[in-house]
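Homework help thread (please don't just give me the answer)

Our assignment gives two proteins as sequence + structure token strings and asks us to describe the second one. The first is just a warm-up. Here they are:
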Amino acid sequence: MIRSAAQRFVSDRTWVIRLLVGTLLVLAIGGLVTLAIKQGVVRWTLKIATGPVLTSRADFLNTVTKIINEERPMVQLKRLKKDSFSASAKAMEDGEADLAIVRSDIAMPSNGLTIAILRRDHLVLIVPGNSGLTGFQGLAGKKIGLLKTEFPERNESLSRILDGVLDYYNISHDQLQREFLTLDEVGPAMAKHQFAGILALGPSGPGPISKAIAAIGNASNTSPKLIGEKQAQAIAKTIPGTEPNEIDEGAFGGAKPKPEEALNTLAVTLRLVGRHSLPDFVTSEVARVLTLTKARLIATSPLARDIEAPDSDDGSGLPVHPGAVAYFDGEQGSLLDSAFSVFYLSSILLGLLGSCIVWLFSFGEKGGANDGQIDSNRLIVIMREARNANQETLDQMETEIHDLLARLINQGKVHAASLPGIIAIAMRQVELQREKLHSANQETSGPKS
């Protein structure tokens, strides 16, 4: 097999030249494409499934898109609007989206890895300042209101997290009455002392929790208290999608900023996740764009303010995309560096390919030369032995000479300068010996005297 391949190399080298030229063209085209991507002429289009958090705050993603157009990074985003976080997660699992914005406690796609944390929502129980309630373990026999949002899946998740906390303290769900209240209903309900407190899940800073604090304070004429969860680290292990976190002192603001001291509690996260099959440099670029967005919008957009790097050790147990890790750790390589690596690897492969081709050429030429030498030696032997050969041996020698000639023609070696002469001499020697034998036979078989 190797011999036949070598013979083909030797006999037809045109396709080898085409192979080398084609390889060089592929590398050249790859280099041009790399530079085009680097300059933003060609960009990697990513489909991003956005849940209700960005449907209601479309200005944030519009600004991200604007920054992408200005900075001309290696990626561009194509939005797929979804009605829920569950739908966003499913879009990624079904291959409809490359990226998705999801919430950790509602639905995480099985094929998604975290690229960035967009926001943390904290679990807080807000009670009047004169309340004797100090923790979730004292909720048995009470009635509390759950701060309602316009999104059913978030309300269901809040109720589910509350159930998880009650289970941790071995409190039967039937021992606690609950009712969902809108923000407008909080103040009047608390003024009538219908609820022991309001349970809310939301971001720190201005937002639904800070508004609920103000409403309860006005209704009770007291400075409300915030109850977190001291056992958050242990409880988070029992409620999927939650993690322990600390709310900074004064994070919710107000006339008397709340909380009055740092507060430990449970938290859930809004995450940007990407398919695990996305190349690292693509997710690194997405992380870079988000960081740039945060720098541009930190003073105006709550979403931009809350963007942070993911941490695989945050207690959530949710995996992080290695491309994002590389960017946030400062180890992101540029696309041009990647291209140089490709060219370097390609040069090594081409060097090996060239060495193999040279070896095959030399093998074929060496093998052909050896074959020619063997054939020449055999012809010389035939010339020497033909002088004393009998008729049968001469016939065999003549057949062998014809075979040698055919083989040399097939191998392309009939043009060797010495071979035609050697063949002619060998054939002449056979003929001379045949004539000699013929004469001898005639003398032997002649008339007797």
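The one we have to describe:
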Amino acid sequence: MTIQDIQNKKHREKIIMLTAYDYATARAVDESGVDIVLVGDSLANVVLGLENTRDVTMDEMIHHTKAVRRGVTNALLVGDMPYLVYQADPSLAVKSALRFKNEGGCNGVKIEWFDRAVEVSKNITAAGVAVMGHVGLTPQTADQLGGFKVQGKDQQEARKILEQAKQLEKAGCFAIVLECIPSSLAKDITASLSIPTIGIGAGIHCDGQVLVIHDLLGLTPGHRPKFVKAYVELGESIRRAVSAFKNDVKDGNFPDDGHSYH
């Protein structure tokens, strides 16, 4: 899958994108035929147990991206730029994007909208790394947006998000993630851009959809956002399996003769 393949799908075929953070999951996701695998900064929450996506480091992202690369042979691989290396310090953006490409084997990187997003996107693209944009709810700076809530619900906010998306397209982004915005706004943005939009909590009118794999598999504890659909409850299955193992060991039923060497 190439950048051009992804862009050619706009208005023709829905783009499927999922996150992955390790070799085994990446291989399963890739073999299922998704178009894009994202090593998301959600790594911070669902894998490392951190409170905020801002806390994940570049070295941690590269470590997991290299593992995912080994499992992905078909899909486009995108790395999420951590907050510390492009928003906290934009001077590190190009170097960090090149690490995703050269060390992690990524086909591109993703950045969230912030006040220097256009500048950073242009610089990374000029260095030879493809950029995916991200507007609407931007988790890395959600505290500046009033928390994790739907964005663009009034006309002024909606116009601002539409303009941000247009600016990122002009800056050279090959696609844009739309997160937690009204479906009607996502429809307008999708129609206004020549590049694909990929929605998460943005309704049906986007050119594609993305979910965090842990949410899809029912592995995320606690509150689930409205846009999350769990296709299986693996968390409960894991708890049942571990409990069964624990009981078998305690009762002397494992290992039995069939699971022993002679």
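TA reply:
I won't write it for you, but here's a hint about the kind of observation we're looking for: Residues 216 and 229 are 6 Å apart (CA to CA).
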